[in-house]
Write a structure and sequence with these properties.
The structure is a homodimer of 218-residue chains.
Chain A (H helix, E strand, L loop, with lengths): L4 H4 L5 H17 L5 H8 L3 H8 L2 H16 L11 H19 L2 H13 L7 H26 L8 H13 L2 H6 L8 H19 L12
Chain A binds a DNA duplex (30 and 30 nucleotides) through helix 3 and helix 4.
DNA sequence: ACGCCGCCGTAACGTACGGTACGGTACGGT
DNA sequence: ACCGTACCGTACCGTACGTTACGGCGGCGT
């Protein structure tokens, strides 16, 4: 037997996608206490197929995380007519998107299992989530920051440091509190407000001002 | 049988503290895959004693987390002669302390198990860590912020919002990356540098300036 | 028609581990 | 000397679950 060849390729049968969606749903409901039997029952497939397709439990979890990651690919920003206004709206849209994803039940569930498995693992789920979470966010945002730097709207020495500051201003304690199980209501209005606040604070720190900006105080 | 009465009181035998330290060490080494047998062997005690003292596995984990939390109680700040200098140094000391704790192996291990158990649990470990982590930090920092507000050195409407911004500026993506298993070297020098940067950025956002402050760019 | 293949459902196996029971030992009180 | 208490070490039980094996069935090529 050569197990789990499908995972390495991007070739996923519709049937297999359905299975992964079922696993995802169970992951959200029950955390990583999901059993192979429960996945098979939920997806109406046999355990034999699960093992043939994904090798073992770890392979199934890995494939599930990657499957979700593949669905979340965001659209990049287009660097054309660029101004303080477009920079601001780009940052705001980015922040609100990120907060929305972050506070979603799927993201919370996935980060939970990834954190749980991050200690000692072979198919490190943590690395996968890391890659598709913070790192992907950085890759997506850095072109925008670089553009701001090149056009003189922003000023900083290290793009990575600037990104990480923006990350902190956006996420703050939201993610860790959600992961630790804090009941947290993040309404659309709150997300928009936080995105605007984080953007304004970021511009206050790294923007090149000609005029005094508006309220950065909460 | 009335199980685990000891947990409710603060009365912990020296022997029991030793056991909890052993459990803590195992938690750091192996994550929450630690077994009752392994704890008993490491602490050179019988499983029967573990169950008598802590009720069940969950009780042992809970007691372990609380035991560690009890050891971390920090000293509060004294509100006497207050100036921009003391505010700054207070914030910096606070930030560096927090970063040091946060990046320690014990904190990472404890947050890992708490996050893992946060989904569906009875003795919610997540709540305990939340209480002794971010919430304790907030309680410890807010008097300092309030003092800054009262003395006119700071300006904000909502203390909680100000705290959470400071939290974001200090922690950024450090904690989530560590939890997800990112190999991360946080040297003493880096911690001090980050603490100063976060403090300066916070003052730039919420401080009442008479003079232009120093470099907030990285 | 017929055999092959992929898949479902289910039963079975092996094992790891939470939890319990029990024998043995040290010790302090009487 | 005797008993109760506390504890260690270990063997044991029950169960949950990962993993494997097997019987049956519908579709598809020939």
């Amino acid at each position: 037997m050569q197990p789990a060849v499908e995972v390495n390729e991007n070739a996923l049968t519709e049937r297999q996608k359905d299975v992964l969606d079922a696993a995802l749903a169970l992951l959200v409901e029950a955390g990583d206490t999901l059993t192979m039997t429960s996945v098979a029952r939920r997806a109406s497939c046999s355990k034999e197929s699960l093992y043939k397709w994904f090798g073992d439990r770890d392979g199934l979890l890995t494939a599930t995380v990657q499957w979700q990651a593949a669905k979340v690919r965001g659209v990049p920003v287009d660097p054309e007519a660029f101004s303080l206004k477009s920079l601001t709206s780009g940052l705001e849209r980015f922040a609100s998107d990120w907060l929305r994803v972050l506070s979603g039940t799927i993201s919370v569930a996935l980060n939970r299992v990834a954190v749980g498995h991050a200690g000692s693992d072979k198919h490190d789920l943590g690395a996968i989530v890391l890659e598709n979470g913070p790192f992907a966010m950085a890759r997506r945002l850095k072109p925008l920051l670089q553009l701001g730097l090149d056009t003189g709207l922003l000023a900083f020495n290290d793009t990575d440091e600037a990104f990480r500051t923006f990350f902190g201003l956006v996420v703050r304690d939201v993610q860790i509190r959600l992961l630790l199980g804090d009941r947290f209501e993040l309404t659309e209005a709150a997300i928009d407000r936080d995105a605007r606040r984080a953007t304004q604070q970021f511009l206050a720190l790294y923007g090149v001002h000609k005029t005094a900006d508006m309220a950065t105080k909460s």
